[in-house]
């Protein structure tokens, strides 16, 4: 083999080795990132817990918008997005909610509360008519998880289907007939640090292998 052929073979081997290295390391790096992200996401889900005491620190408008974007990223039946969100900062309204609905005492001290409503004008008709409840619930859980991930604390306060609460919140927020309040979420910076509840119960799972 002459010198030029020999150099060509060396060059070809070097290129192949470089290509293998690039593929191997880029795959490895991507896996590390994917593993880290998965751990962070699962950790956020597992450590979320209802927070009912808040500091006086205000929640910024941009953080509120992030929470709303997270809520609206939820899945909905046939992608109807049959919801509306009422952002409540007004102290008189928050006071009235706490004064009239006993399990919602924390709303009074929350810097902001968000009422998640079903929009019946956008809800499915026929057999899927009640899917709006699941859609708005998915949005609520997204919002709770986003709040936790952002260092905020929040609690889901149920309204629908308790008729008395629905009527009261509808009137207080001056909602049009097509909007049904599913809940009021109280949100603020945590002033308590309760341990997340361990709810893992294998007996609740059935397998059909
Ligand atoms: C439909 C629904 C209604 C709820 N209503 C209230 C409420 O009115 N007041 C309250 O303090 N917590 C309320 N919660 C929060 C639950 O009490 C809480 O999620 C449950 O005890 C589990 O605790 P965790 O959120 O810390 O895991 C409600 C939760 C759901 C899903």
Shape: elongated
Main structural class: alpha+beta
SSE topology string: HHEHEHEHE
> Averaged pLDDT, please?
93
Largest sheet: 4 strands, antiparallel
Description:
- By secondary structure, the chain is of the alpha+beta class.
- The chain folds into 2 domains: 1-47; 61-188, NADH Oxidase.
- The chain has helices spanning 3-47, 61-72, 91-100, 131-149, 163-172; strands spanning 83-88, 112-119, 153-158, 179-188.
- A 4-stranded antiparallel beta sheet has the order 1-2-4-3, sandwiched between helices.
- α2 (61-72) packs across α4 (131-149).
- The longest helix is centred in the N-terminal third of the chain and has 45 residues, at 3-47.
- The radius of gyration is 25 Å and the shape is elongated.
- The termini are far apart.
- The structure holds flavin mononucleotide.
- Flavin mononucleotide binds next to β3.
Provide tags for this entry.
4-stranded antiparallel sheet, 2 domains, single chain, elongated, alpha+beta, NADH Oxidase, binds flavin mononucleotide, 209 residues, 5 helices, 14% strand, 4 strands
Short summary of the structure?
This protein has helices spanning 3-47, 61-72, 91-100, 131-149, 163-172, and strands at residues 83-88, 112-119, 153-158, 179-188.
């Amino acid at each position: 083999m002459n010198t030029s052929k020999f150099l060509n073979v060396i060059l070809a081997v070097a290129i192949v080795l470089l290509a293998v290295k690039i593929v191997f390391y880029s795959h490895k790096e991507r896996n590390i990132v994917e593993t880290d992200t998965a751990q962070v996401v699962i950790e956020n889900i597992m450590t979320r817990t209802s927070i009912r005491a808040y500091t006086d620190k205000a929640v910024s408008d941009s953080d509120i918008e992030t929470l709303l974007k997270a809520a609206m990223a939820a899945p909905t039946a046939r992608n109807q997005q049959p919801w509306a969100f009422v952002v409540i900062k007004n102290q008189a309204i928050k006071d009235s909610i706490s004064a009239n609905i006993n399990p919602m005492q924390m709303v009074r001290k929350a810097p902001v509360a968000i009422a998640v409503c079903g929009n019946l004008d956008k809800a499915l008709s026929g057999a899927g008519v009640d899917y709006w409840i699941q859609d708005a619930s998915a949005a609520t859980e997204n919002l709770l998880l986003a709040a936790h991930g952002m260092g905020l604390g929040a609690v889901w306060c149920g309204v629908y289907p308790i008729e008395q609460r629905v009527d009261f919140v509808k009137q207080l927020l001056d909602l049009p007939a097509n909007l049904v309040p599913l809940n009021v979420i109280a949100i603020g910076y945590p002033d308590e640090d309760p341990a997340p509840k361990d709810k893992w119960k294998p007996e609740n799972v059935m397998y059909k292998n």
